[in-house]
Amino acid sequence: MYMTNRCPISRNLRFAAARTWFTASGLLLTLTCFGNSQDQSDMKVSAETKSQVISEVLQQLKSKYVFPETAAEMERAVQGHVAAGDYTAITSARQFAERLQSDLRVVSRDQHLEVSYSSTLIPIQEANQQEKIDPEREARIRYKGGLVNYWFKNADVLAGNLGYLRFDGFFPLEDGGHDTADAAMTFLQRTSALIIDLRANGGGDPAVGELLIGYLFDKQVHFGDFLSRPDSSKTENWISAHSLGPRYAGDVYILVSKDTISAAEGFAYDLQSVRRAVVIGERTAGAAHPAFDYRVGEHFTLTIPTTRYVNAVTGTDWEGAGVIPDIATSKEQALATAELIALTKLVREQPDYPFIEERKRALGEAQKSVPKQN
User: Fold this and answer.
1) CATH of domain 150-288+310-368
2) pLDDT per residue as tens digits for the range 281-328
3) pLDDT by residue (tens digit) across 21-53?
C-alpha cells in the first residue's frame, strides 16, 4: 500500500479548492514535518481513549464518507471487532491507529482512508475542520519546496528530439513551482514528442497537472465533475488552455507504475480519456477519492475521502482499478518502450525531418533496448 505516515492535519486539509483532489502521499508533508509517526515516540492508549476515538471515527465516516453504504459496512465491522475484544490488548497508540486503519481498509479497500497517530497534541479545529494558516509555516514550505525544485527532477531532450519531463510529486502551486513548471514546458516546446515520467510520482496538489495540461490544448476542456457527499454539491472540472505560450502540438506519452498514485493517476487518466496521451507502463495504485483530515482525538487524525470524481468520457474514475496502461510493460522498460513507439511514428510520419538520419540511429538504439515480443 502507498500510505506514508503523516503529521496531523496537513495544511489546507490537503485541498486548495473545491475542484482539487488527491492526497500528497507524504510529499508536502515531508517538508512540513520533522518526521513521520514511525519516528515519533509512542505512548500508551487507554481503553477510554480507544473507545472515544472509535466512536468519533465511526461518526465522521457515517456523515462524510463518499459511499454511505460502505461507511455502514465499516461501522458494522469495527463494532464486531470491539465486541470480540480485538482492540482490548492494544496499549500502543501507534499500533491502535494502524489496526483501526487496517480494519477500515479491509472493508473499504480505499487507499485514501487513513487513521494517523501523532505524539504531539493535535489542536482543536474550527467547525469546518479547516486549520488556520501559519504564515511562518507557509514560508518554510516555500523555502523547502525550492530546495527540492518543487519535485521537478528532469527536463531533457533525448535523441531524436524527444522531450522528457520527470516530476515526482505535485507541489502546491500556491507555495511555489509555477515558474519551474512553465520553464520546463518552455524548454520542451520545440521537441517532436513529449514523454512525461510519473513512475515515481506520489501525487499531491493537482494544480500542477492543470497547469501542464493547459499547454496541451488550444481550448478549454471539461474533464469531469466532483461529487461531494457532505454537501451534495457538484463541481465541474474545466481546464483552460495556457494563454502565455503556444500549444504543445506533439504526441504525449505518460509513463506510470504501481507506485503512481492519486493526483498523478488523475493526470494520466484524464489525458488518456480524451486520447491526448498514450499511457505506458504498469497498472497504477488506484487511489482516486479526494480526502480531508479530521481530528478524532487529542493524538489521532482520520483522513476521509468525501468526494468522488466522475470523468466526462468514462463516467467513472480509477478508484480500486488503477489507470490501465494503453501499452503494458514493466516500469523498467517503460521509458525505452515510449522512445521506441515515439521514434517509430516520427520516422514514418516525418521523412523530411532535417535530422532524419540521427533520428533513425536513435530508433535503432531504442529497438535494441526493448525485447521483441514473441
Assistant:
1) 3.90.226.10
2) 999 999 998 888 899 999 999 999 999 999 999 999 999 999 999 999
3) 444 434 444 444 434 445 579 999 999 999 999
CA atoms of 194 and 215, how far apart (whole Å): 12
Q: Which helix (H) or strand (E) holds 302?
A: strand 300-305
Comparing CA positions, the residue from 150, 124, 135 lying closest to residue 298 is 124
Name the DSSP letter for residue 258: T
Name the residue type at position 286: G
Half-sphere exposure for 368 (CA within 13 Å, toward CB):
6
Which three-class secondary structure state does DSSP give residue 361?
A: helix
Question: What distance in Å separates the CA atoms of residue 185 and residue 370, rounded to the nearest whole number?
Answer: 28
Residues 354 and 8: their CA atoms lie apart, in Å, by: 56
The pTM score is 0.84
Q: Range(s) for CATH 3.90.226.10 in the chain? A: 150-288+310-368
Burial zone of 47 (CB within 10 Å; 0-12 exposed, 13-18 middle, 19+ buried): exposed
User: What is the b/e burial string over 183-209, where b = at least 16 CB atoms within 10 angstroms of the residue's CB?
Assistant: ebbeebbebbbbbbbbbbbbbbbbbbb
Which residue carries 533513425 as its cell?
Answer: 360
| Cα 41 to Cα 333: distance, rounded to the nearest angstrom | 41
